[in-house]
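Exercise 3.2. Students should predict the tertiary structure of the chain below and write it as structure tokens, then compare their answer with the key that follows.

Predict this chain's 3D structure.
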Amino acid sequence: MTLDLNLRVIRTNTEVSGPSVLLIHGFASSGELNWERARWTNYFTDHGRNVLLVDLPGHGAEPHRNEGSWAPSQIRQALAAIVIDLDEGPVDVLGYSLGSRLAWEFAAWNPDLVEHLVMGGPGANDMLAGFEIEQARKFLASGEEINDDLTASIMQIVTSEPSNDAEAKPRFLQPPRFWSPATTTTWPPRCPSCAACSRTQVPATKCCGWPGATTRTPSRAASSRKRPWSSWAHSQKRDLDFCPGTA
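Answer key:
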């Protein structure tokens, strides 16, 4: 069953001037917080663009609206279904922070649905990979102190926004994540369907041809023009913009 991403289609108030824009928010945020409050949606609709606004599982209105897996693979399939069902593709995709990683995975698997890809603040490593889910759950259940600095910092962000449902966030971060903590130095992730990739660090292109695979590492590539996702953009004859960040 396809995930419900709480889609809102916001139509332009003028003549259409380009592809629809798919906006993907970051962790502990929502379509409203990232894009509507900051008036991104107004900017696009004022300039002839229709906007596809979504809320990730565990986020936005009715955060527990989805049963089953909230894995990134399920999210990208739901995004593809939205674009296909609405006959909106190819679209321009703009993702922020965690949303930029989802945008990358969506584009890597569905290049025919993406015209331009803009990634804001993806960071060189998966900052959420070290999140201690059980500590977060105990904190929410009983107020037990979190002794992991990263987890404490993330939960402070989660609980500081009144509209967040804090209980839903640990579930969103439970495995499978984008890739295992052991491979967080490599962007994009190793093949998600082949156990040998994560064990031996063999790029997926050498075993099963996963389209998101690469032999480059982000720690060095992210600061140069030779970024790993540039290979995707060049091979698919698509435009990609990169906005630096660490989140």
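Discussion points: The chain is about 35% helix and 10% strand. Residues 72-85 form the longest helix (14 residues).
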